[in-house]
Design goal:
The chain is of the alpha/beta class and 389 residues long. The protein contains 15 helices and 10 strands. The structure holds D-gluconic acid and manganese (II) ion (2 copies).
Length: 389
């Protein structure tokens, strides 16, 4: 392997305990790999060169642990972090595995479940902050329905808002240096999950008490499940100043949630995603929310983790190549670089500009007749990706 694609701390590559720790269980069969403890996962991530490790409260401390067990687990985990130099940039709550959350957490019809979800999340925030997390992710995996007969969608939205407001106030009260990142997914495990896309959350955030504390955590697979262009969602989040975190993986459109190794399937989309993140200088974590094929043993999990980071860096190198390719850049420039003689200058609205635009004689036929050379541009892009440029 060339050193050029070796992960370094400045690349900010992170994995979840639940991702590399995934033992290969699926709805049709039991685990195919041994269970790894949090300490073993941290050691594995240190070995492959990751920057950080993220977790749900119960990835680290089992839901039924005693206080003494809690303390011992956290102590061992901290030691493993210190030994490997791994950071904990993000933490989150498991509000989906326990049967108590079968009808959702913050949107459950049962007020006791909603209260339990708040309590569990505050404790998980305390734990995350104790370990250094600066971003707190909310993925409402069970916040939805199988049938709209079960829950009032309007009421569910209000409950979700009330919960997030409560928790932003809690974080402020505790003086936590913590931002929230909301992660959308259209379905699975529920038939329909509320606020199904990144765009939905961007609208929702503006209705909160503290919108400045809340952003998004878009995931490749989740937007692909909705049939959407992931990079466009990321661009909108970036434009809104809301790209607080990102979940990288891969996914074929129209399939179940595959959680494939980042970069392995949708090559052109991945390329434009990495190019976008690098071009704008996204400063956050590159978190891989995916897992190794069920066919793999622990060595295969390392191959998966190394491959995720290596592919990201290969895409990054291809993006640089694309940006420096003279023929490509000439074509990009040519599209916008056209004579504008006589055209009224538009620098924001003024009555004068409005009148000038309405009075201007546009040559509509010529505008439509102009070839844009996007075929050539896309072919050159493909040639960069296929390694012949
Ligand atoms: C999924 C989600 C989760 C979340 C995780 C962090 O499809 O299961 O992507 O992996 O990202 O729960 O909140
Ligand atoms: Mn997912
Ligand atoms: Mn995710």
């Amino acid at each position: 392997m060339s050193d050029q694609y070796a992960p370094k701390p400045e690349h900010k590559f992170t994995f979840g305990l639940w991702t590399v720790g995934n033992p290969g269980r699926d709805p049709f069969g039991p685990p195919t790999r041994p269970h790894l403890s949090p300490v073993e996962i941290v050691q594995l991530l240190g070995e492959v060169g990751a920057y950080g490790v993220n977790f749900h409260d119960n990835d680290l401390v089992p839901i039924d642990a005693t206080p003494a067990q809690h303390d011992q687990i956290v102590k061992d985990f901290k030691k493993a972090l210190a030994d490997t130099g791994l950071k904990v940039p993000m933490a989150t709550t498991n509000l989906f595995s326990d049967p108590a959350f079968k009808d959702g957490a913050f949107t459950s019809n049962d007020p006791r479940v909603r209260a339990y979800a708040l309590s569990k999340t505050m404790k998980a925030m305390d734990l995350g902050v104790e370990l250094g997390a600066k971003v707190y992710v909310f993925w409402g995996g069970r916040e939805g329905v199988e049938t709209d007969a079960a829950k009032d969608a309007l009421e569910a939205g209000k409950r979700f808002r009330d919960a997030l407001n409560f928790l932003t106030h809690y974080a402020r009260d505790q003086k936590y240096d913590l931002k929230f990142a909301l992660e959308a997914k259209p379905n699975e495990p529920r038939h329909d999950i509320y606020l199904p896309t990144t765009g939905s959350f961007l609208g929702f955030i503006e209705t909160l008490d503290h919108p400045e504390m809340v952003g998004v955590n878009p995931e490749v697979a989740h937007e692909h499940m909705s049939g959407l262009n992931f990079m466009h969602a990321v661009a909108q989040a970036w434009d809104a100043g809301k790209l607080f975190h990102i979940d990288l993986n891969d996914q074929a459109f129209g399939r179940y949630d595959q959680d494939l190794r980042f970069g392995s399937h949708s090559i052109k989309s991945n390329f434009f995603l990495v190019k976008f993140l690098e071009d704008v200088g996204y400063p956050g974590m590159r978190h891989f929310d995916s897992h190794a094929y069920r066919t793999e043993d622990v060595e295969g999990v390392k191959d998966f983790a190394r491959g995720s980071m290596r592919s990201y860096l290969i895409y990054k190198e291809k993006a640089k190549r694309w940006n420096e390719d003279k023929e490509i850049q000439a074509l990009v420039k040519e599209v916008a670089d056209v004579p504008t003689d006589g055209l009224p200058a538009i620098d924001g609205y003024s009555k004068k500009t409005a009148d000038a635009l309405k009075g201007f004689a546009f040559d509509r036929i010529a505008l439509g007749a102009r070839g844009l050379q996007y075929e050539k541009l896309d072919q050159l892009t493909i040639e960069v990706l296929l390694g012949v440029r």
